[in-house]
Amino acid sequence: MANICVVGGGPAGAMAAYAAASCGNKVTLIERNEEPFKKLLLTGSGKCNYSNSDLKSDSYNFGQNHPFWKVLEELNSDWLEEFFKEKGMLTYKKDSLKYPRSERSDTVKKLLSSMLLEKKVDIVTRKKAVSIKKKSEGETNGEYNKEAGCFAMTFEDGEELNFDKIIIATGGKAYPSLGSDGAGYRLARELGHKVSFTYPVLTRLLTDDKDLNAVTGVRFKAKVTGEVDGETIGSEEGELQFNDNALSGICIFNLSRFLSKPLEENAKCIIIVDFLPEMSEDELEEYLEKIPDGEIGRFFEITFGEKTAALLLKKIKDENRKNAKDISYIIKNFRIKITGHDSFNQAQVTKGGVDIDEVDENFESKICKGLFFAGEVLDVDGKCGGYNLHFAFASGYKAGMSAGKEI
In sequence order, which ranges of 23-87 are alpha helices (DSSP H)? Predict the structure, then answer.
C-alpha cells in the first residue's frame, strides 16, 4: 500500500483520489479552499455539462497521435456515462452535450463526495502546498521508503508531510477567486517540468468598434471566422452575442482559444461575421438584385432585426456600397477589429501549462518518477461543450489508477 497525495479538490483531483484509493492505497486529498468542487458548481451554467458524445481529437489542442488521445478513446463519453450510472447518477443528452439528469452541478458534487467517502479518502481543506521536493536516492536507499516517503511536501502553515507518490490536479488560472492561482505550475517547475506561458481562453473578445454599441444586447445566429495578421485560424457557427465593447457566445469562446496568445503578442486580430451563413455570397447577391431599391431597408429589418439592420446599413453607407454584389459582401464579411480578451477572472479555461510532452500515457512525469498530473494544470484546452470537464474526469481517473498500482 502506497501513501499517495492528490493536490487539488476539483473533478480531476476527485477522480484521481477515488481511483488511487480503489487500488487499496492510503490517499490524502489536499484542497486550499474550505471545501472541494467550488469551480465545478459553475460549469454548464450550473447544470454541469460534464461531457460530449462527439469527442474528437481536433476538439483539443493535441492531435490524434498524442498518447492523451488514446486515453480519451478508451475513457470516452460512453465510459464516463456508464461510470456515473454505476455510481448512482443518471444522465441525459441534449444534442451532443451530456448532463446529470437532475440538471444540477450540485448533484455531481454530492456524487464525487460520496465516492471519496466510500473509499475513505482523507480530505484536508484550507491547506495550501507551497513546495514539493523529491528525496534523493541516498535518503530512500534507491527505493520507495514506506516510512519516509519519496516526496516531502511543505505547506503554507509550515507543516511538512511525506508521501510515496504525488498527483498534481490544481487546475489552471481561470476563476482565481475560487482558488485557481497557478500554484500547480510552481510545484511542477520545482520538480523539473517546463510550463508554457498561460492565457485565458473560452472567454469574450474585446473591441473598440463604437458602431457596435448600437447592438449591445443583441443575439444573432451567425458564422464567425478568426483572422490573425491576415491568416484565417478557424471558423465557428452559433449564437453571436454583442456586449458592451465585446463579442460573446460559444462560437466566440471557441475562437478565443486561437486568438488570446496573438492578441497578447500585439498581432492584428479580426473577427469576420457572416450574418447569413445559410446562403452563399452569389446566392445572396442574386436574391438582393430582385429587391426593388426602395425595399432594401425593409428587407434588412425583416431579416436581421432593427438594431442589426441599422448596423449593416451604416457600414454599407460608410463604405459607399451600392450594388447587390457589394451589399452581399458586407453581409457575409462584416469585419470587427479585436483589441483584447477578458482576464482570467472571466475565462472558463486556461491555455498553456505543464508541457504534455514531458508526461506519458499514464499521466506520469517522464522526469520525476512517482509524480503524476491530471486536468487543467496540463497544457490541454478544449472547446466549449463538456470537452474540458471530460478531460478532467478521464485524466484524473487514469492518473489515479496509474499511481495506485503497486510500488
Answer: 67-74, 77-86
Question: Do residue 34 and residue 147 come from a single domain?
Answer: yes
Cβ atoms of 28 and 5 closer than 8 Å: yes
Whole-number Å distance between alpha carbons of 355 and 357: 5
Backbone angles phi, psi at 278, to 5 degrees: -75, -10
What residues does 273 pair with on adjacent strands? Answer: 224, 334
Half-sphere exposure of 34 (CA within 13 A, CB side): 1
Q: Which residue type occupies 387?
A: Y
User: Is the pLDDT score of 34 beyond 90?
Assistant: yes
What is the predicted pLDDT for the residue at 179?
Answer: 79
Look-up: residue for cell 500585439? 266
Task: Give the 3-state secondary structure of residue 97.
Answer: strand
Can you give the C-alpha Rg of the chain in angstroms?
25
Q: What is the mean pLDDT of residues 352-374?
A: 97
Residues 169/5, Cβ–Cβ less than 8 Å: no
Has this prediction a pTM greater than 0.85?
A: yes
Residue 305 CB partners (closer than 8 Å, separation 6+):
218, 220
How many Å apart are CA 131 and CA 369, to the nearest integer? Answer: 17
Cell of 349: 479555461
Residues 100, 82, single domain; the answer is: yes
pLDDT band at residue 143 using 50, 70 and 90 as cut-offs? very low
Element (H, E) at 28: strand 26-30
Number of folded domains in the chain?
2
Question: Which residues form the domain of 217?
Answer: 205-341
- Coil/strand/helix, residue 107: helix
User: 76-80, 212-216, 320-324: which has the minimum mean pLDDT?
Assistant: 320-324
The 10s digit of each residue's pLDDT in 151-195 is 999 999 999 999 999 999 999 999 988 878 899 999 999 999 999
Residues 238 and 293 in one domain: yes
Using alpha carbons, select from 347, 407, 401, 406 the residue that is nearest to residue 6: 401
22 with 161, same domain: the answer is yes
| Co-location of 267 and 363 in the same domain | no
**Burial class (CB within 10 angstroms; exposed 0-12, middle 13-18, buried 19+) of 406:** exposed
